[in-house]
Amino acid sequence: MARTTRTEGGLVKSLTLALILALHLTGLWTHVSSTTRARLIAAGSGISSPPKTAPAPIPAPFVAPPVRMSDATIDVPAPSAMAIDADTGTVLYAKNIAQKRPIASVTKLATALVILGRHSPDETFIVPALPSYPPEAETIGLVPGDSFRLGNVLEAMLVPSANDAADALAIADSGSVAKFAAKMNAKMTEWGIGDTHFASASGLQDEGNYTTASSLAKIAALAIKNPILAGIVTHTSGTMTSSSGRVYSFNTTNELLATGQFYGIKTGYTPAAGECFVGLTRINGHAVITVILGASDRFGATTTLTNWIGHTWQWL
Question: What is the value of pTM for the model shown?
């Protein structure tokens, strides 16, 4: 068998050399592409072409993780809290971060991520029929049939935390809030975010709508990597006008934006969830994501946490 293979190889070599000679004699060799010429020469010499290899990937620039410089401890006044360095994922603070808790309107971060994965912010959006809301629920007063730029409805959902804006996006996308929540849960599985389940797009429903501080930090990290969301969550106010001329004005629920030290991200509150807040700030010039769940004073707890980080951690 080996002898037959060697014989066939020799025959191919001889025929190839004869073809090369014929091409030279007829003046056609110069009309053959350089790639074909190289292959013919390799075959005629009996040398196999070396396998092509993919170029080595360019390594990502190294970012040094922060270093803890103090043994000082703190008990952030919240049932569950966390802080991470946004660039390296280094955990700066952790308290009950695996505890499953309702997160109220912080849910809208996941809603926004799923919507932007399926729609353009420049799409024309028509408000569908909406459910009724209790008097205490945050709404912007959307009127079914009104049309807007979809990006404006996203802003109304995230800045004043309008529950009707969240439900409108969910229903327009999937036909019902329940069907949209199923898509949210599928995305969490796809993204590897565990211990999380959504039952609504707004977070107004507590039952079956939960995550952990650890998983929420991952959702927040995804959100700030999206330039559209990263921009919206910095807005302190906004105005949008429907195609019929109806004007809607709103203000942020994030009081820490006024300090100039925070750049988002989302608030949430129901009696069961308590005061919740996911923040984005800069400490020593580095982006830090904070998570506060179930607090009685979410902004005070966040400030306590970030002050401690600034005195305890150092970026080299």
Answer: 0.81
